[in-house]
Write a structure and sequence with these properties.
The C terminus is likely disordered. The chain is about 50% helix and about 15% strand. About 15% of the residues are buried. The strands form 2 sheets. Strands 1-3-2 form a 3-stranded antiparallel beta sheet.
């Protein structure tokens, strides 16, 4: 793989992992390249998707770039997401949901700092299920999105407000649970409580 193809592959990986529109200037900064070169490579990447009739396309939104599925496959993608929407929450999703709920308003990077892994999939899953939603953007470089819980979250967990959440265990209690049960997560003992959220849950 030559240098240019390697950079194009990096751009593809970065946009895929982001899941959100990214400014060309930000990509250029991270790759230590000039914006003109990055813009040309992004155009080439878009042409590659078009030339092979890929289900993925590269779109430009207000000077930012994002990988999206093509419009003609919208019905198929929507059908898949409806199936995914009705699947039980995974342990990872529960942990992300707990971080959002107990901190009330958090960014994706904050969640990932706590969990130590990429959380894009879990966040997208929780948004699809209507348990968390975008609450706005922080007034910081990059204007990161802020996520918070929804009214549906409160209904599903029978809470009147986030103030009704149970107190978090102390460090000593967490260490004792881990020692006694060999657990790496508090949620491992609650597998019987995993929610399956169906459309019926939305009925008042």
């Amino acid at each position: 793989m030559n240098k240019e193809n390697n950079i194009i592959a990096k751009l593809e990986a970065m946009l895929f992992a982001s899941g959100e529109p990214v400014e060309a200037s930000k990509l250029a900064e991270l790759l230590e390249l000039d914006i003109e070169s990055v813009t040309k490579m992004l155009a080439h990447l878009g042409d590659l998707y078009d030339d092979r009739n890929s289900g993925i396309c590269l779109v430009r939104i207000d000077g930012k770039y994002q990988l999206c599925t093509r419009e003609e496959y919208a019905d198929d993608v929507r059908a898949l997401l409806e199936i995914k929407k009705n699947t039980p929450l995974s342990q990872a999703a529960f942990e992300v949901l707990a971080i959002v709920a107990y901190n009330k308003a958090v960014t994706k990077s904050f969640i990932e700092q706590i969990r130590g892994v990429d959380c894009s999939g879990s966040i997208a899953n929780l948004v699809q299920k209507g348990l968390i939603e975008e609450k706005g953007r922080m007034d910081l470089p990059g204007r990161p999105l802020v996520y918070g819980t929804t009214d549906r979250f409160l209904r599903c967990f029978s809470l009147n407000s986030l103030d009704d959440l149970p107190d978090l265990p102390s460090v000593e209690e967490v260490e004792k649970i881990a020692k006694d049960n060999g657990q790496t997560s508090l949620f491992e003992s609650d597998n019987d409580k995993i929610l399956k959220i169906n459309e019926d849950d939305e009925a008042e």
